[in-house]
């Protein structure tokens, strides 16, 4: 593994490995000192439309293309403060002024979370406090209006209760929750937003990759970078995503890979293989390998140095693996050269991506532009791979098969009559 000291050129800002802890960093401190103004869940005004029985076969629905009957919205104007928060029909949409800053300067941030129907019949969220904190940090980075993330979480739970009947009943299926916030200020000036809109939509979804838990290959992009030292790679801001579409489409066209794995040059242009592995367009990545000195196995993911999104799934995987105690877990840089060598020596056991949308996605090869493949053979039938073990551990918590503080119920009422996880649901 490349030692952090050898990466000084990168001038990477070291943040804590834990999203919660990262809020205590100096950058974060300056971002969290807001005005104290907020909307309150107790004030939510509801305009409810009746649930329309849907005969949606989620297997046919692309990710994020169906929405529930309602959305949550609140608007803030400088001077007037927050207006009354609302849960209103999704069909009313959201109107923005043609000069709204979000349309011109991408002043927006968002979150991605999932609500699951637990085996106990209760709707559940997975570590929602971490998403709320990350959203808050992203929004403060963009100088959007201040609010209380705990209040946003309560508003989200209320929206989920309103649209509870949309919660899919089949394992692997869930309600994707998309909180987002943007500058709705009517001004073409590139300046501090004086008007902010915060909203949440819900979308019933199935597995993110149509291949499910079977492995995919990723294109290892050594040309484009997703994030850079001093940038906003650790925030979930819209501007981190728009530029990733082109490299992703090119890679898909040329190699058939659904996502790109980004790398970050260390400064040594004479040695392109000294670039470090970063993350994918929408997933953090883990590498499970036999250590070169024969002293055991290690699960490695890049450190939270400001260029990596502090994923909730990433954090959960690190915590679970550390608690298991049978493997070395480290947040460390891996160069292309090291990865290639591990693969050639048969030491690269597994690569997997992780994120709310896919949970854990096995990756059996990284395709380079020169045609070379860094292979990590994956046995999809084995129950004992790190990928399978981690998927089970996470989904057991998400669906409440195993009790955990990470699984947070948003309703008390069990739906008794429903047959959970019907095979044909
Ligand atoms: C760039 C990026 N990395 C990683 C992740 C995974 O984060 P999480 O586990 O919080 O969904 C996401 C998805 O949100 C992402 O967009």
Protein model, in words:
- This protein has two domains: 37-205, D-amino Acid Aminotransferase, Chain A, domain 1 (2-Layer Sandwich), CATH 3.30.470; 211-380, D-amino Acid Aminotransferase, Chain A, domain 2 (Alpha-Beta Barrel).
- 21% of the residues lie in helices and 24% in strands.
- With 425 residues, the chain is α+β, with helices and mostly antiparallel strands.
- It is globular.
- Helix 4 packs across helix 5.
- The protein contains nine helices and 19 strands.
- Strands 1, 2, 3, 4, 5, 6, 7, 8, 9 and 19 form a ten-stranded mixed β-sheet that branches. Strands 10, 11, 12, 13, 14, 15, 16, 17 and 18 form a nine-stranded mixed β-sheet that branches.
- Strand 10, helix 6 and strand 11 form a beta-alpha-beta unit.
- Pyridoxal-5'-phosphate is lined by residues 112, 279, 282-284, 309, 311-314, 355-356.
Q: What is the structure about, briefly put?
A:
This protein is α+β, with helices and mostly antiparallel strands.
Overall CATH architecture of the largest domain = Alpha-Beta Barrel
Helix/strand class = alpha+beta
Note the gap between the termini: 46 Å
DSSP helix count? 9
């Amino acid at each position: 593994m490349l030692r952090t000291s050898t990466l000084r050129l990168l001038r990477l800002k070291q943040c804590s490995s834990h999203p919660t802890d990262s809020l205590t960093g100096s950058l974060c401190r300056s971002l969290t000192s807001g005005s104290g103004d907020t909307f309150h869940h107790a004030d939510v005004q509801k305009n409810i439309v009746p649930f329309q029985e849907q005969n949606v076969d989620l297997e046919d629905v692309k990710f994020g293309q169906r929405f529930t009957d309602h959305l949550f919205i609140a608007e803030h104007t400088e001077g007037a403060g927050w207006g009354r928060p609302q849960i209103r029909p999704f069909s009313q949409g959201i109107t923005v002024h043609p000069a709204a800053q979000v349309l011109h300067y991408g002043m927006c941030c968002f979150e991605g979370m999932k609500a699951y129907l637990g085996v106990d019949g209760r709707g559940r969220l997975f570590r929602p406090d971490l998403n709320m904190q990350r959203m808050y940090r992203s929004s403060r980075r963009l100088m959007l209006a201040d609010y209380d993330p705990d209040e946003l979480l309560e508003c989200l739970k209320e929206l989920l209760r309103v649209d509870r009947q949309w919660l899919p009943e089949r394992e692997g299926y869930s309600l994707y929750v998309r909180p987002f916030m943007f500058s709705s200020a009517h001004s073409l000036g590139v300046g501090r937003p004086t008007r902010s809109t915060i909203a949440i939509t819900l979308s019933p979804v199935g597995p993110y990759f149509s291949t499910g838990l079977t492995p995919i290959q990723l294109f290892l992009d050594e040309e484009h970078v997703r994030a850079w030292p001093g940038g906003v790679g650790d925030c979930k801001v819209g501007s981190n995503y728009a530029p990733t579409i082109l490299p992703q489409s090119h890679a898909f066209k040329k190699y058939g890979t659904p996502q790109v794995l980004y790398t970050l040059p260390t400064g040594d242009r004479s040695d392109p293989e000294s670039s470090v592995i970063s993350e994918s367009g929408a997933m953090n990545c883990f590498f499970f390998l036999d250590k070169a000195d024969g002293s055991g196995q290690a699960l490695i993911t890049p450190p939270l140095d400001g260029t990596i999104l502090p994923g909730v799934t990433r954090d959960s995987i690190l915590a679970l693996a550390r608690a298991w105690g049978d493997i070395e877990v480290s947040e460390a840089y891996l160069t292309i050269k090291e990865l290639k060598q591990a693969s050639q020596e048969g030491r690269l056991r597994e690569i997997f991506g992780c994120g709310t949308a896919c949970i854990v996605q096995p990756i059996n090869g990284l395709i380079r532009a020169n045609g070379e493949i860094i292979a990590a053979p994956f046995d999809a039938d084995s129950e004992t791979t790190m990928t399978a073990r981690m998927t089970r551990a996470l989904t057991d918590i998400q669906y409440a098969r195993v009790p955990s503080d990470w699984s947070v119920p948003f309703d008390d009422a069990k739906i008794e009559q429903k047959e959970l996880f019907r095979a044909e649901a």
